[in-house]
């Protein structure tokens, strides 16, 4: 919303010109004839701003509004942004714009360029909170007639904050000519809110009726006071039912939001666990350095950003394959250097890879720094998707969910459709037999481990978009990841997906009544109990082979 | 000797781990109908593959029964069911008249009087031969009793005599892991003897043995029959002939034929299964 | 093998060396601290005494881990939980002893509770003003947790790495829980600013010596107890379970009972180690629960040589001495060294230093 108000000056001017043009068309020569005296008056008012106190400034703003001079909006916007200044030498008022050599001046009356000045030669015309509020309202009044429906909508929203006779009449006028359905609805809501203060109970009742289906805070608060102070019982009842309605929807959207938070947390868990599901689930290798492989992925994203400081989006997109390669290669190194000597000795593997995780952490501390680093988020991932007044989804979380599903699908594809996948499954089911059939099992082991490690790296890139990147990044995920894999059922990628997602959702469902830390503890305790009830997880592998474990 | 005795009573009164034994105490074995093992309509399926398919089998008290059958006939799975390692999907398994095997877990079944020798010799490789036998010795196997247990002269004598029976007297203090394959098999049989079970399940006792070793093993098993009931799973037909009175042929998870070895060998169905179509 | 415990201890070389060194240290160190003047080269500073006491606590903890790992094959990544619980029980007693000498001077409430505006002592803090009760809790708290956890875990036959991972999860959950102020254990800061123990000033040299001796005594006692268990028939059953769990079941041993019993005993030992540790270092906070610490204990045992008990002690001393030295001289290098230790010991030294010595003696 604020982004809309602080529009770049170029666009403001363009809008303004459009507005002028429309006005000209509408009122023809009459307007043209009236322009000259308007200019003079406008100029006088503007000149007074240089010396006026805050009270006077408000009065001037009122006067400017009344005059409706074509440049007023530009002036007010500049005033609001603190870009209005008077020249110390002659007290003339200018709109200022930052320029290379000091400040560019713009004449507030005819919008013409008026040279440049040093910023020290100017005195800024100050505003206070009250004045800024007034200015916002005033600008909204102008924007109400803007050609862009989005701008009009924002203007209506702005005006709803404080309704008075002027704004109400402006809204009513606009409703008569408005053709965008959304803006019409906003206008109706605004007018209905105003009508709630009407002395006539019927009008108030009708207004409550109009407000039905609205979920915004302004409406809710107004209904709340109405329900308390309203003398007429019918109106009170209507307000009450309106409130209930809003509460219901809010609860619903709250639920959807929780679900979404849960899924996004679940996606992080799935991303963290899915590489582990390959190394631990398919190969039976405990890799305690899995978290550190994620950390390496996250640092790859960080380095990528250092290499391409100007191209945030490109850096993140390139970081995904790069992290896969870097972490994957480290993974192959780990398998060839350590893990292969310890096959069949899972506890020793656990210890050795844990030692490795310490080394990797310390290496990162030495190379980068023990401090956390932040990786910038590309523009398309920042901000949020406002679905309605009480419900919005943040883009980065939404993309994480999509990304997790994408990684999962790709991995399924690799394991089920490629020759590597075939070999991996063969070796994991019966190493001797696979070897007899000519599968080079050592090579397949290295590739599988590399694949799992690479996926961990990719997960690290995703994490870099959610949290800061630091040497301890991986450590905090290792327990969770193991829990997800074991919960879902070892050797079962679908189990990991469903396990991760459901753990995420359960965690977020618990959070409201138990707090975040308690929720995590409860989930851990639940998992500990669950594994003891069903040691093979949600989706166990059955059969003779599994019996042997 | 006063302190350990006092501790024992203390442990006795506490029964800290008593309630870990699920359900009621195991009833005494009752073989009044002269049948020691009832397996009825047992089915076990792994991922759709039926390892046992409505298997019904009875073993008489004191009998020595041989079970033969091709690979995958379900012999080992049957043993797993009897000893509580695998739970069947359906069917019933009774030990004598009173003991429902499906309600018990492995240690309870062992305590009830069923001993098992595995196909692959499994002895405790890090323990000495003597210790292996000591561990297998029948008696109260609860923690507190075992913690303060001392070998009585009678028990030592018993172990020594079993050592003699299985011919490992000279290896008394050797690490079990250092024994030869045949010696391990005997040690395992010796452990069964120490356990003194009513029913012994013996899985392929002569696999990988020399003829002399095989002969010795046959003697051992024959010596056991009568006092104990013995079920032997074996591939080696010569060995089966040397010990068996009654033979059961398993095929695809159920009983194909039963009778003396000669009867079974002349059974048309058995011939078909063994010699192919 | 079937000889009485005393004879075992006297004939086994490792035990001889360990108990001998422990007794000599326990006599010499106090003497050199109290009787030798501070400027003498032979003087052992109180700082060193406390440091040694700390090491001995670690050694006891290592014994506890070795008992379950080396003898029963249960790789615990959760022994810091028991250690910390014992430590907290002791810490709570020490907090109650502060009385009105705290910053806020409340006769009953510890400082952090006053700070949090609590008006009453939480129920679980009652009784900790009595030494005997606190000592009972040092044993009961870790023991009960281990018993309940083990009862579930062993009964459902969770073994191997699965068990390791859930012990780690347990520790992690406790770590998170103890970080919360609402838990009433001082949150992030833990319990500290202790004044005295049984009326003895914790800063006094004599108290330090006393704590050192108590630790040495506990370590010796713990060692003998573990040795006794290992030498008993139960010890042979436990090793049998380690080597062939299924077989042990089929000859009639209730494997889960044995594991549970051993596990609980080991947790109690760890708790006692924690209780002795806290007054010597002067603080207990949730950091003690950290899973990384739990894995570090395992590496002490691995470095020394598992399944021997004295190896665990040796490993704890060697690694911790190295840690003290490295973090003083080259703090950057310590984690590299520790990490490398994990890798190298598992790859090249599966029997640890003790195994190496045994091999050297055999070839010599």
Automatic annotation (TrEMBL), chain A:
Bilayer topology annotation = Multi-pass membrane protein
Ranges that cross the membrane: 259-286, 293-308, 314-334, 346-364, 398-415, 482-506, 512-531
In terms of NCBIfam families, this protein maps to: urea_trans_UrtB
GO terms (molecular function) for this protein are: transmembrane transporter activity
What Pfam families does this protein's entry cite? BPD_transp_2
Q: Principal place where this protein is found?
A: membrane
Q: Which family does it belong to?
A: Belongs to the binding-protein-dependent transport system permease family. LivHM subfamily.
Q: Which organism is it from?
A: Sinimarinibacterium flocculans
The GO cellular component terms are: plasma membrane
Location in or out of the cell = Cell inner membrane
Q: Which UniProt keywords apply?
A: Amino-acid transport, Cell membrane, Membrane, Transmembrane, Transmembrane helix, Transport
Q: What is this protein called?
A: Amino acid/amide ABC transporter membrane protein 1 (HAAT family)
One biological process term in Gene Ontology: amino acid transport
TrEMBL record, chain B:
Q: Which NCBIfam families match?
A: urea_trans_UrtD
Q: What is this protein called?
A: Urea transport system ATP-binding protein
Q: Which GO terms describe its cellular component?
A: plasma membrane
Which part of the chain is the ABC transporter domain? 37-277
What the entry lists under Pfam families is as follows:
ABC_tran, BCA_ABC_TP_C
Keyword Membrane in the entry? The reply is no
The organism encoding this protein is Sinimarinibacterium flocculans
> Is Ribonucleoprotein included in the keywords of this UniProt record?
no
Give one GO molecular function term.
ATP hydrolysis activity
Q: Which UniProt keywords apply?
A: ATP-binding, Nucleotide-binding, Transport
UniProtKB/TrEMBL annotation, chain C:
Membrane topology term reads: Multi-pass membrane protein
| Subcellular location field | Cell inner membrane
Q: Which CDD domains match?
A: TM_PBP1_LivM_like (cd06581)
Residues that span the membrane, as ranges? 17-36, 48-71, 77-95, 131-154, 161-179, 209-230, 260-277, 297-321, 333-358
Q: Does the keyword Plastid apply?
A: no
InterPro entries registered for this protein in UniProt? ABC_transp_permease, ABC_transptr_urea_perm_UrtC, LivM-like
Q: Name one Pfam family in it.
A: BPD_transp_2
This protein's major location comes to membrane
| GO molecular function ontology, one term from the record | branched-chain amino acid transmembrane transporter activity
Going by the UniProt record, its keywords in alphabetical order are: Cell membrane, Membrane, Transmembrane, Transmembrane helix
Q: Which GO terms describe its cellular component?
A: plasma membrane
Protein name, please? Answer: Amino acid/amide ABC transporter membrane protein 2 (HAAT family)
Organism field: Sinimarinibacterium flocculans
């Amino acid at each position: 919303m604020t982004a809309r108000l602080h529009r770049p000056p170029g666009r403001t001017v363009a809008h303004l010109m459009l507005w002028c043009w429309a006005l000209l068309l509408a009122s023809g020569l009459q307007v043209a004839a009236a322009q000259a005296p308007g200019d003079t008056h406008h100029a006088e008012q503007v000149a007074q701003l240089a010396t006026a106190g805050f009270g006077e400034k408000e009065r001037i703003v009122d006067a400017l509004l009344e005059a409706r001079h074509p440049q007023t909006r530009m002036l007010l916007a500049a005033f609001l942004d603190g870009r209005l200044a008077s020249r110390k030498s002659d007290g003339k008022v200018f709109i200022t714009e930052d320029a290379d050599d000091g400040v560019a001046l713009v004449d507030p009356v005819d919008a013409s360029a008026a040279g440049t000045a040093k910023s020290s030669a100017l005195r800024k015309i100050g505003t206070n909170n009250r004045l800024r509020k007034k200015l916002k309202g005033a600008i909204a009044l102008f924007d109400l007639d803007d050609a862009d429906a989005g701008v009009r909508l924002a203007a209506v929203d702005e005006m709803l904050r404080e309704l008075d006779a002027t704004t109400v009449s402006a809204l009513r006028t606009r409703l008569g000519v408005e053709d965008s359905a959304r803006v019409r609805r906003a206008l109706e809501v605004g007018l209905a809110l105003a009508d709630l203060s009407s002395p006539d109970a019927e009008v108030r009742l009708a207004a409550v009726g109009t407000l039905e289906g609205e979920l915004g805070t302004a409406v809710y608060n107004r209904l709340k006071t109405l329900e308390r102070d309203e003398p007429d019982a019918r109106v009170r009842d209507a307000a009450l039912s309106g409130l209930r309605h809003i509460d219901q929807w809010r609860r619903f959207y709250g639920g959807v939001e929780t679900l979404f938070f849960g899924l996004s947390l679940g996606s992080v868990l799935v991303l963290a666990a899915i590489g582990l599901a390959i190394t631990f689930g398919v190969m039976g290798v405990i890799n305690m350095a899995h978290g550190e492989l994620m950390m390496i992925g996250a640092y790859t994203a960080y380095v990528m950003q250092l290499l391409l400081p100007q191209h945030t989006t490109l850096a993140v997109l390139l970081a995904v394959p790069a992290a896969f390669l870097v972490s994957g290669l480290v993974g192959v190194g780990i398998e060839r250097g350590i893990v292969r000597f310890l096959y069949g000795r899972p506890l020793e593997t656990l210890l050795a890879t844990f030692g490795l995780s310490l080394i990797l952490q310390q290496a990162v501390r030495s190379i980068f720094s023990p401090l956390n680093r932040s990786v910038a988020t590309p523009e398309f991932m920042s901000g949020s998707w406002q679905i309605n007044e009480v419900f919005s989804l943040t883009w980065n979380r939404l993309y994480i969910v999509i990304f997790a599903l994408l990684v999962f699908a790709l991995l399924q594809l690799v394991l089920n459709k490629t020759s590597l996948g075939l070999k991996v499954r063969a070796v994991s089911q019966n190493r001797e037999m696979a070897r007899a059939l000519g599968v080079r099992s050592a090579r397949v082991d290295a590739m599988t481990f590399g694949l799992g490690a690479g996926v961990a790296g990719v997960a690290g890139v995703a994490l870099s978009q959610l949290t800061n990147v630091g040497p301890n990044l991986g450590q905090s995920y290792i327990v969770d990841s193991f829990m997800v894999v074991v919960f879902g059922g070892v050797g079962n990628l679908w189990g990991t997906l469903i396990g991760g997602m459901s753990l995420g959702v359960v965690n977020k469902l618990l959070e409201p009544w138990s707090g975040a830390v308690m929720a995590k503890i409860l989930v851990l305790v639940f998992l500990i109990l669950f594994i003891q009830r069903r040691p093979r997880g949600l989706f166990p592998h059955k059969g003779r082979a599994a019996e042997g474990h | 000797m006063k302190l350990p005795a006092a501790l024992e009573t203390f442990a006795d009164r506490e029964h800290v781990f008593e309630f870990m034994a699920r359900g009621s105490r195991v009833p005494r074995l009752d073989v009044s109908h002269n049948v020691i093992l009832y397996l009825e309509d047992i089915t076990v399926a792994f991922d759709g593959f039926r390892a046992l398919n409505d298997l019904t089998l009875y073993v008489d008290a004191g009998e020595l029964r041989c079970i033969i059958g091709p690979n995958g006939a379900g012999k080992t799975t049957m043993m797993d069911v009897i000893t509580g390692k695998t739970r069947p999907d359906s069917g019933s398994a009774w030990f004598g008249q009173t003991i429902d095997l499906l309600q018990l877990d492995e240690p309870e079944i062992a305590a009830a009087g069923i001993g098992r020798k595995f196909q692959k010799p499994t002895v405790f490789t890090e323990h000495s031969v003597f210790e292996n036998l000591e561990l297998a010795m029948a008696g109260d196997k609860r923690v507190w009793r075992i913690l303060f247990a001392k070998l009585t002269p009678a028990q030592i004598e018993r172990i020594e005599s079993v050592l003699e029976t299985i011919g490992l007297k000279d290896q008394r203090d050797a690490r079990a892991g250092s024994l030869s394959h045949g010696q391990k098999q005997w040690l395992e049989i010796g452990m069964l003897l120490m356990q003194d079970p009513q029913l012994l399940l013996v899985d392929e006792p002569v696999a990988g043995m020399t003829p002399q070793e095989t002969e010795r093993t046959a003697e051992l098993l024959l010596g056991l029959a009568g006092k104990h009931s013995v079920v032997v799973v074996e591939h080696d037909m010569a060995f089966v002939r040397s010990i068996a009175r009654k033979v059961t042929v398993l095929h695809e998870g159920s009983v194909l034929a039963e009778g003396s070895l000669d009867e079974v060998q002349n059974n048309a169905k058995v011939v078909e299964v063994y010699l192919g179509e | 093998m079937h000889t009485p415990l005393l004879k075992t201890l006297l004939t086994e070389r490792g035990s001889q060396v360990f108990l001998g060194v422990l007794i000599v240290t326990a006599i010499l160190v106090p003497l050199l601290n109290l009787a030798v003047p501070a400027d003498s080269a032979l003087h052992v500073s109180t700082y060193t005494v406390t440091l040694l006491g700390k090491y001995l606590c670690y050694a006891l903890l290592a014994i506890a881990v070795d008992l379950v790992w080396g003898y029963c094959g249960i790789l615990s990544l959760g022994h810091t939980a028991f250690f910390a619980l014992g430590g907290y029980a002791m810490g709570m007693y020490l907090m109650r002893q502060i009385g009105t000498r705290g910053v806020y001077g409340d006769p009953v409430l510890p400082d952090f509770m006053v700070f949090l505006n609590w008006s009453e002592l939480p129920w679980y803090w009652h009784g900790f003003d009595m030494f005997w009760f606190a000592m009972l809790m040092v044993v009961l708290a870790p023991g009960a947790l281990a018993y309940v956890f083990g009862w579930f875990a062993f009964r459902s036959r969770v073994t191997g790495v699965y068990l390791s991972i859930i012990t780690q999860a347990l520790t992690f959950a406790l770590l998170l829980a103890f970080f919360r102020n609402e838990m009433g254990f001082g949150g992030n800061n833990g319990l500290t600013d202790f004044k005295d123990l049984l009326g003895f000033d914790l800063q006094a040299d004599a108290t330090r010596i006393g704590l050192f001796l108590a630790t040495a005594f506990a370590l010796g006692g713990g060692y003998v107890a573990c040795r006794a268990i290992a030498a008993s028939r139960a010890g042979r059953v436990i090793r049998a379970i380690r080597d062939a769990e299924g077989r042990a079941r089929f000859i009639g041993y209730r494997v889960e009972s044995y594991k549970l019993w051993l596990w609980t005993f080991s947790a109690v030992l760890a708790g006692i180690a924690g209780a002795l540790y806290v007054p010597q270092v002067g603080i207990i906070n949730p950091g003690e629960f950290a899973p990384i610490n739990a894995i570090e204990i395992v590496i002490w045992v691995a470095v020394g040589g598992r399944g021997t008990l004295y190896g665990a002690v040796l490993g704890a001393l060697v690694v911790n001495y190295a840690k003290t030295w490295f973090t003083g001289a080259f703090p950057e290098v310590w984690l590299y060294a520790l990490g490398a230790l994990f890798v190298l010991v598992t790859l090249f030294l599966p029997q640890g230093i003790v195994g190496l010595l045994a091999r050297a003696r055999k070839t010599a």
